Amino acid sequence: MDNAATFYLAGHETTANALSWTLFLLSEQQALQDAMAAEARAALSVGADDPDLPERLPRLKAVLDESLRLYPPAPRFDRQAVAADRLGGQDILPGDIVSVWPWLLHRHKALWDDPDVFDPERFLDGGRPRHRFQYLPFGGGPRVCVGARFATAEALTILAHWLAAWRFAPVRGREVRVHGLVTLRPAGGLPLVLSPRAA
Ligand code: HEM
Description:
This protein is α+β, with helices and mostly antiparallel strands. The chain has helices at residues 2-27, 30-44, 58-70, 102-105, 148-165; strands spanning 77-80, 85-87, 90-92, 97-100, 166-170, 178-180, 184-186, 192-196. The protein has a single domain, classed as CATH 1.10.630.10.
């Protein structure tokens, strides 16, 4: 029962938030959104049910990666210590909860250039080398997200279809705020204005 519930929760809420944040970021940068729409249309021209579709979207993948950096749908995850340890100068006692915060790591000034800037180029060739645990949208270690590859393929497929068909624009004057409790959601939803793209 617990495993089934985890799959339902971890499998939809996370990807839904990733899609919302990605479309929000693209709505703020129309030229980049146009480029993503062009990549999506070229990729979809091979066939809408092409199983290799995600592989044909390298720039959209970089946009998704950058979106997961700025707005990791799982902003925090916890571990409970089974034994005494010492971490960052702190004593850890058995039973202590240790929280790992991708949201903070992903925006740490010591780890990233201009950490608050949306710049998908950092995930394309030539980006600054990264420590293997400085970017953790899907966690790490033995309990890394089992759905990571599926989620990436799913998100890219959905984004490709939507971006090919629609233009997404912000609702002017509406403030976008984050709500980070279990997942990182837009507080009060994240309405965007859709208009059809010319064929
Ligand atoms: C963008 C989408 C997703 C993100 C950001 C995400 C993130 C994460 C993270 C950070 C963890 C590790 C939690 C921890 O270490 O305590 C995790 C675990 C997990 N995720 Fe995902 N996830 C996503 C999509 C999915 C999907 C689509 C599925 C299933 C179809 C899924 C199923 C799971 C399961 C079952 C676990 C627990 C694994 C274990 O404890 O062994 N996730 N996810």
